[in-house]
Amino acid sequence: MASKNININLKIWRQKNANAKGNMETYKLDNVSTDSSFLEMLDQLNEQLINERKEPIAFDHDCREGICGMCSLYINGEAHGPDRAVTTCQLHMRKFKDGETIYVEPWRAKAFPVIKDLVVDRSAFDRIQQAGGFVSVNTSGRTMDANAIPIPKHDADKAFEAAACIGCGACVASCVNASAMLFVSAKVSQLALLPQGKVEARDRVLNMVRTMDEEGFGNCTNTGACAVECPKEISLDNIARMNREFLKAAITSEA
Amino acid sequence: MSILDSKIPEGHISKKWTDYKDHLKLVAPNNRPKIDVIVVGTGLAGSSAAASLGEMGYNVKAFCFQDSPRRAHSIAAQGGINAAKNYQNDGDSIFRLFYDTIKGGDYRAREANVHRLAEVSGNIIDQCVAQGVPFAREYGGLLDNRSFGGTQVQRTFYAAGQTGQQLLLGAYSALSRQIGLGRVKMYNRHEMLDIVKVDGKARGIIARNLVTGEIERHSAHAVIIASGGYGNVYFLSTNAMGSNVTAAWKIHKQGALFANPCFVQIHPTCIPVHGTNQAKLTLMSESLRNSGRIWVPKKKEDAEAIRAGKLKPTAIAEDDRDYFLERRYPAFGNLVPRDVASRAAKERCDAGYGIEANDTNEGVYLDFSSEIKSKGRQAAFAAGNHNPSEEEIISLGKKWVESKYGNLFQMYEKITDENPYETPMKIYPAVHYTMGGVWVDYNLQSTIPGCFVAGEANFSDHGANRLGASALMQGLADGYFVLPYTVSDYLANEIRTGAIPTNTPEFDEAEQRVNDQINKFLNTNGTKSVDYYHKKLGLIMWNKVGMGRNEQGLKEAIAEIAQLKEEFHQNVYVPGASNEMNPQLEKAMRVADFIELGQLMAIDALQRKESCGGHFREEYQDAEGETLRDDENFKFVGAWEYKGDDINNEELHKEALNYEFIKIAARNYK
Ligand SMILES: Cc1cc2nc3c(=O)[nH]c(=O)nc-3n(C[C@H](O)[C@H](O)[C@H](O)COP(=O)(O)OP(=O)(O)OC[C@H]3O[C@@H](n4cnc5c(N)ncnc54)[C@H](O)[C@@H]3O)c2cc1C
Ligand code: SF4
Ligand code: FES
User: Fold this and answer.
1) A167 and B68 in contact by Cβ < 8 A?
2) For residue A90, what are the domain limits?
């Protein structure tokens, strides 16, 4: 097998809690299998720290297969690290060299305050969803038959691609303005592309964008960094679509 | 009389639920805001329940340990969700879905519950489409379907390999709407650590704020537990890292019976184990068995050469491959149910034909080359090319495969560094789902009045083996279409109760239990990490309470786990403090519960002297190695009652299973 072991140096952001001042700490970790995932490597480091009776590093993670959106590390200056179209949990140590020094930091954005070490608070994303990221249909089960409205496959596929967003926040972390446009536009697009979502399209885009601004995310200046780091390859087309939706809504708004 | 009253309504199976529902008590809209309901969990079951109850006007509090309700483990479900829509006109019906589920569960599930599930399955799809869930569609704009194991119809709805994600985001959007409207209050990063009972009824929970470490009291008129399954008792499983049994186990210790704990599903198609630092296993969706063929070499020396890295699977001639599922089960072939497929793979690997170069040589191939060729040819013909070259066929075939399974293939490649378009995937069974769970009656109420249990956390619908694409169906059925009725019926007697105070002895006592446990862990100051013990537990469970079980092994497991429990509590080291974010402390609390549960699983498996579904007792098999059920003696739900710290003292209660509408038979997929 192609697997081998490497030794690495790590510089990791440590911060006791939201109010504490943080700093980068240095660690050395030997015998890391290149088949390990990045988070398995951190597990190994934590095991080492526990055995040395030092405090292990807190980081967010759950599914470890790139779908829950919980893992969120800024590795060597890139959200989710050097590989493309993957989350941190899907990044493998075979992407790193023996003897390499790896820098690990939390997402940095005003709207995502650090809670501890590498863990940040992303509840702002939830609040944006609560402002309009839904179709107002009651859960009676007495809706119309699922096949009553055929949806062109092309639109359904586009909606699905937008809906693939996992809400990880890498787009915000990679943006110089800490803008949440890619995330918000993915939800707006998904629902705007489907007949079920069109009815409320106007209010949705206005409410979600307003909440995004209130939460302290920055403006979009079209640098495109978000789409490069997005693990689900959410397309910039969604931002364009949201801008159109927003403009349409703003023009027709009763104000 | 048994303390287990399943409350199954009288009447014909197809009318039971409708009639019953029509006669349940209601709570008038003006009374609902005076009533509090707690929902623990925001997976498909919890989100849908919280959203529905909030929408009805109850005062709902929902809890999850992740940083957002959208990250519940349901998000990871890949393959699809079943519904008896018969859109493909292949003879599907509610009865057939009901029948397939009972048979798939090897006749160890309740008829009435399963029929209800099949009845509401169609509504789920309607509801989800109305919410904007982007299911896969055909060119005509209508919904597409595929097949899953254990069925001969196409009734599985899907969204590429991300069905769970899309369904959960649908339920999350309904939940978010209610949170925005102020009808549901969401507690992210909170973990329920105990239940509070007042006069025998569930009246609240004790939760720990995982950011500040604060211990909080929350009261309610009813508590719904939708905390998911307990597969992580094996340490390595396809479950998310945080998935745990704590909520379910804590209510068990306070009086809820725990049913069929030994019924665990070991999924045939997961990526094999690669090393000792591995933290979890990754599923490759069952939908792949629609297109992939499972095989090992016919010759042992070929298997050896592959393991040694001297031979490539693509170099093995067609005649030298053993497509063992097609060989043993011609009627269902690669689409036999999961338990059957898993055992067949284990049988081949135990016999020395495994192809993976890990410690145990455990791995078989899942090969897409036949499908790539056949779909490529079809695509060429469809495009008017009736004389395609081999290259054209393969390139078109790969495109087809990518459109169906692209994300799964990518996931596989990222993990293994091998390209499954070119070389067959390597797979092996892994722990995936737990059919057992908290015992509930027809109303999904546990033996604690006012405490309801939904989704994977209950035992209700899947018997001894769950069919693919049925867990998502069950989670949403429970939350959207069952609990709103049955919980309302219970709450109808609570309209005069008034708010439940939290400054009472019952809350004091429950909080004390939690604080005692936390303090004990932080003061043990032993030498080994929590993971050290969790891994040890996992190994005992996998080797002795795994795919093959026998009397001796189970007895050993029971003793070994008792020993492990002692060592764990004496020698674990939990760093940090209680009043801060402390992931090690969270883990320690969970592993303590896994250890106790693990022991009960072994006890339950020992008690069940038969083989059925995922529970394979090596002593009970026929000449061809198939499961031998014992309906005479074991056609019951085994529900355990907690009797104090020594799990050996738990008392077994039996709920007899009656099959009135389905003729019980040997399960045959040949
Ligand atoms: C990889 C994978 C693929 C799958 N694919 C399919 C498929 O294709 N089709 C199918 O039908 N099924 C599939 N399943 C099974 C299915 O996904 C699960 O059974 C189902 O999603 C469980 O849903 P749930 O709502 O019961 O629980 P979960 O989704 O597990 O949610 C549990 C919730 O409880 C919360 N929680 C747990 N404990 C506590 C506590 N103590 N305090 C507070 N909150 C707590 C969690 O935060 C979470 O919100 C798959 C499972 C896996 C692992
Ligand atoms: S758009 Fe991409 S980067 Fe942003 S939250 Fe969604 S998945 Fe993450
Ligand atoms: S841990 Fe779920 S996406 Fe990484």
Assistant:
1) yes
2) 5-105
Question: In this structure, is residue A165 part of a structural domain?
Answer: yes
Let me know if residue A110 belongs to a domain.
Answer: no
Is residue B189 situated within a structural domain? no
Question: pLDDT tens digits for A94-140?
Answer: 999 999 999 999 999 999 999 999 999 999 999 999 999 999 999 88
Q: Domain end: B363, B394, B429, which one? A: B429
Q: Is residue B84 part of a domain?
A: no
Note the pLDDT of residue B226: 98
Would you say residue B602 lies in a domain?
yes
Looking at the structure, tell me whether residues B527 and B398 fall in a common domain: no
Size of interface A-B (CB pairs under 8 A): 226
The confidence score (pLDDT) of residue A2 equals: 62
Q: Is B137 on the interface with A (CB under 8 A)?
A: yes
Hey, whose CA ends up nearest to atom 8 of ligand 2? Answer: A168
Cα of first residue to Cα of last residue in chain B, in angstroms, is: 41
Residues B511 and B396 in one domain: no
Q: Determine, for residues A126 and B69 on separate chains, whether the beta-carbon distance falls below 8 Å.
A: yes
The residue among B52, B87, B241 with the most chain A CBs within 10 A of its CB, best to mutate, is B241
Nearest CA to ligand 2 atom 1: A183
Distance between Cα B423 and ligand 1 center (Å)? 32
Residues of A in contact with B166 (CB under 8 A): 160, 163
Domain total in chain B: 2
Ligand 2 centroid, distance to A67 Cα (angstroms): 11
Distance of residue B91 Cα from the nearest chain A Cα, in angstroms: 18
pTM of model > 0.95: yes
ipTM of the predicted assembly exceeds 0.85: yes
- Which domain covers residue B542, as residue numbers? 505-614
- Same domain for A29 and A74, yes or no, is yes
Spell out, as residue ranges, where chain A has pLDDT lower than 50: 1
Contacts with A188 from chain B: Cβ below 8 Å: none
**pLDDT value for B1:** 47
Number of structural domains (chain A) is: 2
Residue B359: HSE in the Cβ half-sphere, 13 Å Cα cutoff = 4
- Specify the CATH number for the domain of residue B540: 1.20.58.100
